[in-house]
Write a structure and sequence with these properties.
201 residues; alpha/beta; Rossmann fold; five-stranded parallel β-sheet; 6 helices; oxidoreductase activity; NAD(P)H-dep_reductase; FMN binding
């Protein structure tokens, strides 16, 4: 059986972004566990505003859609802007309407994390991110993480804060575990039979 595939999508354009660093930490942990990981960074999400009447798709949109369509699990990371996720990430999620015929993110585990100076605002952004993932039929994992702005990550994708490290580890492991259980030997986007679901559990 092929490795689990994870799409790690980050919604920040800031140089030295903590949310991107946290996303890369999760991606590195997933790779160490044997997963194939596609990281879609903020600059790759500079897409035109979603237009349901537009038939044209940019290279960036096709890259995002291919990563999500082929994934068994997804990690979404966003900075907190005024109590919500970044507009960059929200617009990217709007573009996933192109996956409607395949059930959006149905059958995929989704882990969500936000970065904020204020934990109340971060929690609000996290809730919005989880709501969007669930509206896209993704199976959000129980662990959601608000990372404190200013948390230090090293270039080799490690984190200096033990509490943040532990929470990101749990989030990543839940995405992988749920993806393994849910897949049950089937490709993403293919409806599971009762037998396949039972075998996966």
């Amino acid at each position: 059986m092929r490795p689990i595939r994870i799409a790690a999508v980050g919604g920040s354009l800031r140089s030295g972004s903590v949310s991107e660093a946290a996303l890369k930490y999760c991606a590195a942990r997933a790779r160490r566990a044997g997963a194939e990981v596609t990281v879609v960074r903020g600059p790759e999400l500079i897409l035109p505003p979603y237009d349901p009447d537009s038939g044209a798709r940019t290279v960036g949109e096709r890259h995002l859609l291919a990563a999500l369509h082929g994934a068994d699990g997804v990690v979404l990371a966003s900075p907190t802007y005024h109590g919500g996720m970044s507009g960059l990430l929200k617009n990217a999620l709007d573009h996933t309407e192109a996956l409607a015929a395949d059930g959006y993110l149905d059958g995929r585990s989704v882990g969500c994390l936000t970065v904020a100076w204020n934990e109340v605002a971060g929690a609000a952004a996290l809730s919005a991110l989880r709501t969007s993932a669930q509206a896209l039929r993704g199976w959000t994992v129980p662990m959601g993480v608000v990372v404190q702005a200013g948390t230090e990550f090293t270039p080799d994708d490690t984190c200096h804060d033990p509490r943040t490290t532990r929470r990101l580890d749990i989030l990543t492991d839940q995405v992988l575990d749920f993806a393994h259980m849910r897949r049950g030997g089937r490709e993403p986007g293919v409806p599971a039979t009762a037998t396949a679901v039972g075998a996966g559990l």
